[in-house]
Give the backbone structure.
Amino acid sequence: MKKTPTLLTLLLIILATYWSFRVLLPQYHEGEAVAETEFSTDRALQHVKEISKEPHGVGFPAHTTVRNYITAELQKLGLETSLQEGYTAGDWGNLSKAENILARIKGSQPGKALLILSHYDSNPHSSLGASDAGSGVATIIEGVRAFLKTNTTPKNDIIILISDAEELGLNGADLFVDKHEWLKDVGLVLNFEARGSGGPSYMLMETNRGNSKLISEFIAANPEFPVANSLAYSIYKMLPNDTDLTVFREDGDVEGFNFAFIDDHFDYHTQIDNYERLDRNTLAHQGSYLMPLLNYFGNSDISNLKSLDDNVYFNVPFFKMVSYPFSWIMPMLGIAILVFIVLLISGFRKKVLNGKDILKGFIPVLFTLVLNGIVGFYSWQFLKWVYPAYNDILHGFTYNGHAYIFAFTLFSLSTCFYAYYRFRVIKTANLLVAPFIIWIIICGLVAVYLKGAAFFIIPLYSFLVAFYVHINQKNPDAFLLVFLGIPAVFIFAPFVQMFPVGLGLKMMVASTLLTTLIFFLLLPLVTKYRKKGALAFLSFLLFAGYMVSAHMHSGFTKERPKPTSLLYVLDTDENTAKWATYEHELSDWTSQYITKKSADSILSKKTISSKYGSNFTYTNVAPLKKVPKPTIEIQLDTIINAVRTVRLCVTPNRPINRLEVFTNEVDILKADVNGIELSEYFLQNRYGGRLITNYISDKNYTDITLEIPQNQELELTVYEASNDLLDNGLFSVPPRKEDQIPMPFVLNDAILTIQKVKFE
């Protein structure tokens, strides 16, 4: 192949890769004139700015301020609003008072209503909640405003639910589904969420049955920038992550769509989830979903969206969404295998293929898969060893995470180019057999075990065409081979970034292996390059460059602050106190109180719960402070029919944010807290002995009633926490530096008391 086609074809592949990402998002232009009847990102941003001024978790002062602001904005639109208040504990044993904001647009015809949903509480205790989920609330307010400006009456009622206490256990959604009379009217839910501060918003369905009708209707609604695929849908169903929409599906049998963005994951649930860091293109993307779906589902029949059938679906440039039924999966797999066999026979008859060279073709395939797989698998452990402070980024996506994705992708390409440079003397047609066999095995496995990924077969058809071309032509047209390789790039390139972004850098192995597999699909073109050795060297140099760049940005700054944690833990029974932290690499701020790297093993393993099951890393003796302990009053202790019933009341003697109760290993037959009965599912699946978490808002005491077998002894451990360590007059803890933030996902900046209650 001549030099010019090589350069041009490489540029075309790079351009196709760029375009596969570029078309995922609309482009925001600040100050752009937008009609009153259209969604304006600028107008939505004003709501985000107001909502995210202060942390506004349940029980925090700004929580009421944000609720009042949202209510007032909906009323400005001419909507009649109402509040739904009540206590729930959900399926997670998290008790809180939720205050949902509700409004309704009356439709012109009877039938099921469309419900649009987001939550207004931020994660306690330091998150500003600009993305999660101020962006969702702002999207709904601005979208409803634009919709109402059209002066058209929808056929269906449109219910607006801005839920509360989502961060504590989906409590607001639970309250609506269990108690509100409007639930019976709901036919479909559109839920807007966030798990980062940028990137494309992924559409993820929630359905108890098949997805066929839902995906067909979604495609018919024709959003301009759909980002959705049945692989992400299948993975989402396997993960423990839930949204408010999950409650509607599980408890109300109401289906719907989540729209959630997950990039810039390092901002998730942190103090830097603020107005400035929210990606404007991402907010525009949320609006680009809401407006067409609001118009479509507001005027279509949503009373019968359930289906027993599933569809494979995926987004691709130019075609937007492609979908086909699961019933096509096996025939498509069979056709690909049959065509491959026919081409093999043809190749052998024409003496283009020979068994020896085909077997040699497995060497670079296996070499690259094994090497890139090993490097990807151990990359995160290696990075945490080199940079111990990465251990303090609990969700596993560092500020320089994108540089690492680029780096290890380039390393994988370098390995692939080098491997095929070494086997450059083998005819291309022979080299294509092994990659196809690897890919068809993958497609066969997903056809059986992960049907949502069955669209992997699509680029394989282009590969078969390229295989046919190489069997029948000595010098195929380079631009034809580029064209045949584009489906692989368009479909798979975004996944290289999606996996480590969504699941953390521990999933870098998905990026390295997927890069290798994409390279295999581009082999019909790449094998014709004469300078594969030079391309391997160039890729490795770029890998080194990105690693250097990542190293230069591995430290912490004001824009990339270090997560830090500090707690004061008082054992009221032993009358001892300790400083404790979740940090692995102690900051200078934390080191003022914890200097020796040692930990109380008992305290570390038995403490208040956290999202990732984190334990205290280090502790140190602390001075005793007169922190008031709660009053625990035993009101009932009786045995009837071999069942022991115990009732107690825990009353705080200081302002607190959270009360948590653990039990010893005992069978809890029944339990209720403040009159809310805990679900049987939760009681049977309690982890670590946790009984209840009560997020305190305006109710100070906690009433607990338990039923246990008569022959078992009960011991309760009561944790009482307030997030006021830096403000409490008993302490003089200085504020953090600008390059530090409170660590998310754990109890932080807290004064924690521990008290045991034994029932002999």
About this structure: Residues 478-503 form the longest helix (26 residues).
